[in-house]
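Agenda item 2: zinc ion complex prediction
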Amino acid sequence: MGSRCGVRNFFCLAIVLLSSFSVFGANGPTVALSVDASEAPRKIFHTQLRIPAKPGTLTLHYPKWIPGEHGPTGPITDLTGLKFTASGKTLKWRRDLLDAFTFHVEVPAGENEVVANLDYASPALYEPGYSAGMSATEKLYIVNWNTLLLYPAGYSSDQLTYSASLRLPAGWKFGTSLHVSNQVGKDNEIHFAPVSLTMLVDGPVITGEYLKVVPLTQPSQDPPAELDVAADSPAALDAPEELWEHYRNLVKQAGILFGARHYTDYHFLLTLSDHVAHFGLEHHESNDSRVDERSLVEEDGRKLVAGLLPHEYVHSWNGKYRRPADLATPDYEQPMQTDLLWVYEGLTSYLGDLLAARSGERTAALARDALAQIAADLDHRSGRVWRNLQDTADGVPSMQTAPHAWEEYRRPLDYYDEDVLNWLWVDVIIRQQSKGAKSLDDFCKLFYGPPGGPPMVKTYTFDDVVNTLNQVASYDWRGFWTERLSNHSPGAPLGGVEGSGWKLVYDEAPSGLDRAQDRDGKMIHAHYSVGLLDGGDGVIRDTVEGMLAAKAGIGPGMKIVAVNGRRFSPDVWHDAIRAAKTSPSPIELIVENADYFRVVKMDYDGGEKYPHLVRDESKPDLLTEIYRAK
Ligand SMILES: [Zn+2]
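Presented output:
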């Protein structure tokens, strides 16, 4: 997932240059942080911080640019109950007039510590956002420390030490990559070993009444890895044993791919709930991933979430250990620059899909279904006429929460999916150039591999990527990536798919993945037939510029009321598209638009269209080799 450097630009630059290898170690003050989450089901959290201070003005920041979220997404609107005292006396404070995330506190003569109290009133209903989204239910809560604290200005997050404690509702259990110093039994208060602010924010805590711990490594194996799953019901934790085996394979296959690990103890923190925000967020030693409650116990659910945990796990190497230099900011106040997200997210997406297949989480057929959908979606992206791939990365800090209406033409976060196609192309070129001797696996070992050890950040630039690719196989990589990032070609970049021995085709039979999505029942995907995406309730979420629906005058926000004279339903829609293939009449829709009704005719005879990859026997099958367990 995304992030930015501001008032102290010089400071930021200096830190980045000095810390192309940065190891987290503190030489600044220690802040004591107590979080009371005992009211988690009410979604309100109480924090007290004890912050060393000197008489004069103490400037404090609330975290704004959250690592991995690629934007200024700290939930400042939910920070409430703010109060500062020293020796029991209330202190005057004022918010910065240019930055709502910054507070100035007046510290009287003779005082050396400020006590800050704050409440985090977390979202109770759906709001877009990652760690700032809904995070608590009746039965569970995911602690993201950045939502619950302030930090003093003038230090990098590596320099500050936080000594944190957390009080949970009675009987709740927890999982985290943070080390526990001692746990008090009666009031369920956990004390964590002091860590840098960087590593505290890197260590979310999953908590809940129903929590299952699945070891993913043997007891003798170092470093260890485990899966901590919290759910809204005990039944949701009852996944088939083979699923846990796939995640054990994932840890093993990632070790083989990269040749080293950059953590001391890894925790997959997986939340199963229909009442929290759904996303995955990466950290050095854990990931915070959240999906529907029944995702693991139903076969369709497992198909739909496959790929998420491999993606977030790959980020421990790509994004956390190796990080674009202009994303590696010293604190949470400095803006991040997102131009290299085509490596940070794009390559992670490619490698996550690759590991989903190599671990068995996805069969090779399901992995191809997912790749076919990516290729087909990108092949119908009308926005590429005005916006190149590089701009989808550059613009994300301000655009990631854009609405779904007009998404096709605005062009969404294509540096994820389009770079799955581009990195596949790179993998294929390496294999061709080296006559099968080398692959992208060799790049992974050089760029992300030994020596392993505790978390650290090693930054990189565009040149570093190109130079390492050339170490693996000599090619015009600078020219390749410059063209891929800047072109305005009409279709998806399919050189990798085709070079790997497969072709993108469309037919009327939905793939296994299409069927799972259809049964999920939330959307009608008619992208590739008439260029329309419908919410399943008739409300049109988006249309593709230049395709039939848009040409007929349909746009996002309108509602399909009837199809060929019958009230709209997903079944009525699918029947009409299928029948259009042999019917001489156009499809007739009644469309509602802002209280007006209109009849729209679409002259379509193509039938339903679902994307697939089919084998091209004239070429060697590299894709199957790429997906094969090593
Ligand atoms: Zn990601």
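Discussion summary: The pocket of zinc ion is lined by residues 1, 282, 311, 315, 345, 348 (CB under 6 Å).
Owner for follow-up: CH.
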